[in-house]
Amino acid sequence: MTGAFHPPLRTLMGPGPSDVPPQVLEALGRPTIGHLDPQFVTLMDDIKRLLQYVFQTDNALTLPISAPGSAGMEAAFVNLIEPGDKVIVCQNGVFGGRMKENVERCGASAIMVEDTWGTEVSLDKVEQAFFENNNIKALAFVHAETSTGVRSDAKALAAIAHKHDALVIMDTVTGLAGIPVEVDTWGIDCAYSGTQKCLSCTPGIAPITFSQRAQDVIANRSTKVQSWFLDMQLIMGYWGANTKRAYHHTAPVNAMYALHESLRLVEAEGLAAAHARHALHHKALVAGLEAMGLSMAVAADVRLPQLNAVNIPEGVDDGGVRAALLEQFDLEIGAGLGALAGKTWRIGLMGFSAKAVNVRKCLLALETVLSAQGANIAAGQALAAAEAVYQA
């Protein structure tokens, strides 16, 4: 018999998961009850209310899918898209490419609008794609691209889609609770996220919301949803408004305790305060990185405060730096993905990870490791620059 697994205590400043607050970890250890227990049904109702708050929506079809954020993406497409449909898919990073895969696996056509990785989705290109193609079913885009640290203009993108009577599908896995997400105000028909980013919950659950227009599309499909597990018409029998719930699957009860606690903490802080906190620590981190001599990979006006893409200095061993940070400081930062692999680091300031102690630790650790590698940086400047932001 092997011994029990005891993970090291890390500081998680990569692209996710983020640090999990003690209250959320404690919630995981509460007694397990049945997934149809009346007390659990009461909890489900409050989780739905809290998800409506963080998504800023009154959508009745708002729930947590019992699977990670990638399942939220798949749920969006398999419910709304049918064979023969045409979908404009915006790609400016890895996850736009995954949207394309989902569209094609639904038997639909993906009309790609591609932008350089590290830049926002071009509104002009999207507008042009609508003019060049008829009968577009939906526009799909990533609000906060985790692979690049770029924020695109969700409100403006949705407005273009509305003008052409298309549905709007938005990936906000990294956006939710870190920057404003206003589903109803922007007119988003489906938005999905993940629990392990700015919600600072454990991985494995995908919050999702569908507008009434999207629900009507689902109800009037001419073909069955290709996924039984992700079929919203079946899931709503379990997550619906009635006190009598129909069995669909065994929900991860303890994980839902954790989600409820993480959402409760967001509500207690308030979304505006959470957004301001992420922005403050981002500003301090960037000040420290730039004082050290490092440069940011994304223009200031479209940077995500919760996901910071940093250019790797010439001659620096990417993997060696990340390994040293983990071994010497128990600090995790992320590697670049796809076209940016080996060119950028992704430093997360998400949820519970977005705090001054983490910013200071990251700057000190990076300076130490880069200096040991002989990198051309300005030593002794980073912490003072970050503190100047905090004291302003």
UniProtKB/TrEMBL annotation:
<comment type="similarity">
    <text>Belongs to the class-V pyridoxal-phosphate-dependent aminotransferase family.</text>
</comment>
<protein>
    <submittedName>
        <fullName>Serine--pyruvate aminotransferase / L-alanine:glyoxylate aminotransferase</fullName>
    </submittedName>
</protein>
<dbReference type="GO" id="GO:0008453">
    <property type="term" value="F:alanine-glyoxylate transaminase activity"/>
</dbReference>
<dbReference type="InterPro" id="IPR015422">
    <property type="entry name" value="PyrdxlP-dep_Trfase_small"/>
</dbReference>
<dbReference type="Pfam" id="PF00266">
    <property type="entry name" value="Aminotran_5"/>
</dbReference>
<dbReference type="InterPro" id="IPR000192">
    <property type="entry name" value="Aminotrans_V_dom"/>
</dbReference>
<dbReference type="InterPro" id="IPR015421">
    <property type="entry name" value="PyrdxlP-dep_Trfase_major"/>
</dbReference>
<keyword id="KW-0663">Pyridoxal phosphate</keyword>
<feature type="modified residue" description="N6-(pyridoxal phosphate)lysine">
    <location>
        <position position="197"/>
    </location>
</feature>
<keyword id="KW-0032">Aminotransferase</keyword>
<dbReference type="GO" id="GO:0019265">
    <property type="term" value="P:glycine biosynthetic process, by transamination of glyoxylate"/>
</dbReference>
<keyword id="KW-0808">Transferase</keyword>
<dbReference type="GO" id="GO:0004760">
    <property type="term" value="F:L-serine-pyruvate transaminase activity"/>
</dbReference>
<dbReference type="InterPro" id="IPR015424">
    <property type="entry name" value="PyrdxlP-dep_Trfase"/>
</dbReference>
<feature type="binding site">
    <location>
        <position position="346"/>
    </location>
    <ligand>
        <name>substrate</name>
    </ligand>
</feature>
<dbReference type="InterPro" id="IPR024169">
    <property type="entry name" value="SP_NH2Trfase/AEP_transaminase"/>
</dbReference>
<dbReference type="InterPro" id="IPR020578">
    <property type="entry name" value="Aminotrans_V_PyrdxlP_BS"/>
</dbReference>
<keyword id="KW-0670">Pyruvate</keyword>
